[in-house]
Amino acid sequence: MRRKVASYLSAFILAGYMIYLDYGMLQYTAWKATSSLFPGIERYAVHSFVRYLFYLTGAFIILVYTTYFIFYIYFRSSEGLIRYPLLYPKVSIVIPTYNEGMNIERLLESIYYQDYPFNLVEVIVVDDGSVDATAEIASSWGAKVISHETNLGKARSLEDGIKASTGDVIVTMDADSYFATGSSLRYLVESLYTRPGIGVSTGIIRISHRKGRLIERFQEIEFLHSFEVGRRVQSYLGWLLVVPGAFSAFRSYFLKRLPSVPKDTLAEDFDLGMIVHRAGLDSVFEPNAVIYTYPETGWRSAYRQRLRWYYGGLQVISKHRDMMLNRKYGEKGFFLFAHILLLEYLLPLVQVFGMVSFPLIILFQYIFDVRILDFTLSPDAMAFLLLLVFALQYLPGVFMSATALAIEHGPKRALRYTPVLFLYYVLYNPLLSVIKVDATFRYMKGVAQGW
Question: DSSP character for 225?
Answer without folding.
Answer: I
